[in-house]
Amino acid sequence: MADHPSQLASARELRADARHNRARILDAARETFAARGLDAPMVAIARRAGVGVATLYRRFPSRESLITEVFGEELAACASVVDEALADPDPWRGFRAAIEKVCAMQVADRGFTDAFLTAFPDAVDYERTRVRAERGLAEMVRRAKATGRLRADFDVADLVLLFRANCGLIAGAGEGVEAASRRLVAYLLQSFGAGHAEPLPPPPPLTLGHLTRRA
């Protein structure tokens, strides 16, 4: 027996309402994570979206699933930045450009760094993109060093120091955060050049994963 027209209309309304709620949740999550980081309470996201917590969890059963959805595009953008750097015929120029762009992403979205580096085993595509970006960063460093323009004692761990420093700056710079970040990055990029740099102490035992650790 065919569905009654009123039933079909009701079903369409429910689907439209579900899509609307989902979009509101994603917008609210993006804004909340950007302002408060990935530890922001789920109830705060639901409140900002104007939906109940139960509705939020029906759409996204875990924090990880919500984060994966929210930051998927940003992660893909970061991976693209690294790919562009590797495609640049001038590895040193590509290296500098990639660092500037990733740091700008950190400024634009406080939750981005954690989302980039947090492992979500169930999100296969997300995890593959993240790993590709990490490997690309290491290759970017190797190529820049091979030109002789990046100091020979530079280590991938120095990228962690740079990103951590930028994160710390972002947390306390207030309205001047964009200008402060650009200046910090410019200072550090100058120090990365080979030139007549003095030898550095050994690099710390840091990996990109340390960026998500609070301690």
Automatic annotation (TrEMBL):
<keyword id="KW-0805">Transcription regulation</keyword>
<dbReference type="InterPro" id="IPR001647">
    <property type="entry name" value="HTH_TetR"/>
</dbReference>
<dbReference type="Pfam" id="PF00440">
    <property type="entry name" value="TetR_N"/>
</dbReference>
<dbReference type="InterPro" id="IPR049445">
    <property type="entry name" value="TetR_SbtR-like_C"/>
</dbReference>
<dbReference type="InterPro" id="IPR009057">
    <property type="entry name" value="Homeodomain-like_sf"/>
</dbReference>
<protein>
    <submittedName>
        <fullName>TetR/AcrR family transcriptional regulator</fullName>
    </submittedName>
</protein>
<keyword id="KW-0804">Transcription</keyword>
<dbReference type="Pfam" id="PF21597">
    <property type="entry name" value="TetR_C_43"/>
</dbReference>
<dbReference type="InterPro" id="IPR050109">
    <property type="entry name" value="HTH-type_TetR-like_transc_reg"/>
</dbReference>
<dbReference type="InterPro" id="IPR036271">
    <property type="entry name" value="Tet_transcr_reg_TetR-rel_C_sf"/>
</dbReference>
<feature type="DNA-binding region" description="H-T-H motif">
    <location>
        <begin position="41"/>
        <end position="60"/>
    </location>
</feature>
<keyword id="KW-0238">DNA-binding</keyword>
<feature type="domain" description="HTH tetR-type">
    <location>
        <begin position="19"/>
        <end position="78"/>
    </location>
</feature>
